[in-house]
Amino acid sequence: MSKQEMSPDELSACRKRLEQVWKNRVMDEDLLHQAWHDAHEIAALLYEELGATQVSVFGSLTEPLWFMKGSDIDIAVSGLSSDLYDKARIKVMNFDSAFRIDLINFDTSNGLFRERIKHQAMPIEKGFQPVLWHTLYKHLKRQVFPAESGEIYEMNRKRFTQRINDELDKINGILERIQRGLEKIEIVPIDVKEFIENTIATDLADVYRGIENIFLRIAREVDRHVPRGSRWHKNLLAQMTEKRPERPPVISENTSLQLETLLDFRHKVNNIYGRELRYEKTIPHAKSIDELFAKVSQDLNTFTDSLERR
What we know:
The chain is of the alpha+beta class. It has ten helices and four strands; from the N terminus they run H-H-E-E-H-E-H-E-H-H-H-H-H-H. It has a four-stranded mixed β-sheet, with helices on both faces.
């Protein structure tokens, strides 16, 4: 069944079910404590070893009702040159944490994404010791701990949609880089083409990773079920085509089939050496990725619209 085939009564039932899910959400205090501890450790690293001028937390960790096992720690850093930022990413990537750390260079961010970071940012000041996590949210008490159940649904729906749009904004930046690569590969010497092709292949893999991040958020925060096992990537994709008690289908069957092809390509990129990637496979994917992403974005917009209380 497609999203368009769901009746108003069915959509209303989905919204009521999801409202109850979000109303019953509870905070994992131990998880929040560990996440903030790791955030302070990373901030100390960025300040002391790399000379950052400002480190802030944004995203789901600023909203404790949304932070759960599997959530990312989003950190924005300022005051680093491009080379130092690259070093910072490597250090953060190698940081021993139970959480995935997403480091953003605030100085090069722009548009709505930059404004959202500014709105959400909770600075970690240089030299300050970690404090009890619940004291960090006092100035956001009304926004973080709404008093009425109707407010909970509306607040969570808006923030949930915002998180999806943030990820779509990131993917748009990758698409622009892919298009620049396609333009260059037509005019560069043949010995440079392989390098550009491999860069495009990596970017295509990152596009799928970004889309999959959105699906994981929906699985965790709406479905309350994330597939496990060796086939979890494909099972997650299949789950997004299902109608569930809390929601209509997220994407169409047709979009899912096209994404499965990109997922297979992503698997090859991640598991074979660059020189084994076949040029005739990478470039067709790159030339069609804008059209595929437009379909994914349209499906996601229809999905988030269906969550709106009318």
